[in-house]
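Recap slide: NAD-dependent epimerase/dehydratase, sequence and predicted structure.
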Amino acid sequence: MDELAFVTGGNGFIGANLVRLLLRQGWRVRALVRDRTKARNLAGLDVDLVEGDLLTDDLAARMAGCRAVFHVAAHYSLFQADKEVLWRSNVLGTRSVLAAARRAQVERVVYTSSVAAIGVGGPLTDETYQSPPEKLIGAYKQSKYWAEQEAKRAVQSGQDVVIVNPAAPIGPWDSKPTPTGEIILRFLRRQMPFYLETGLNFIHVGDVAAGHLAAFERGRTGERYILGHRNLSLKQLFDELERITGIAAPQFTVPEWLPLGVAWFDEQLLAPLTGRPPAVAIDAVRMAAQTMYYDATKAVRELDLPQTPVRLALEDAVDWFLKNGYAGAAGG
């Protein structure tokens, strides 16, 4: 096999795992990065790095000869002040990538959305549900919804696009880290004495990468697929981490109003005065108060989405964070 794939966001968490999977499967990879000198997640890999952003004028030329485009890149922020940046990157950026792929005559685009774009529709949400965009919490979720609409419009115009909606991935190469990775890190650093009663759907990031490739190979045009695995409360996640690490899981919950008040003070008052980004986002607390459980049956059935046990995903994440010095002495 000597096919060429174009990957946006290849230096990110999901992207870095996807690039590695593509290489193992015999694909050649061309990855769009802002600065090749800072693409640490791709260091040492046989990847053609091209510099630019999602709105680069010659994006179609960069995609020349590619059979597949995996549009993984997105800006993630829960701070209300970043609304315009989120729209530009996630919505206009997606529009730009899709238009470039169409001009370059790429066979198929796999667009990485998020369960955030779907919202929460009861105790267990699947692809058939869609929260009204105005009901989605925060500018990030809303931007991912509107980016999906760009993908759907592209399909209506005749372009071959498949949408994947990852849940909360866990595993190696979470260098930023993601919000889920940050939870694991705070646990390892013993900085999580309390927690909010909530729940998420977790999946090994390697399975998310496999879901992307399967979406290209077997996904149905215009369909979206939740890439998820196991629904766990935050307490269940911490108990699993305790069994893996020996670090005691937090035992006490806090009411929503307490972190919400701290976040409001930080984001609305302290951050504007100091010029520093807030440590806690209001929308992050509002989102955490929702139990976000999802049903990935469709992806398992149609894409043969792997379902690696969450314990193994956590072990891989903990191992990667510790080996790369993220947890410091507290994680020993």
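The domain at 4-170+202-228+293-308 is CATH 3.40.50.720 (Rossmann fold).
The mean pLDDT is 89.
(End of recap.)
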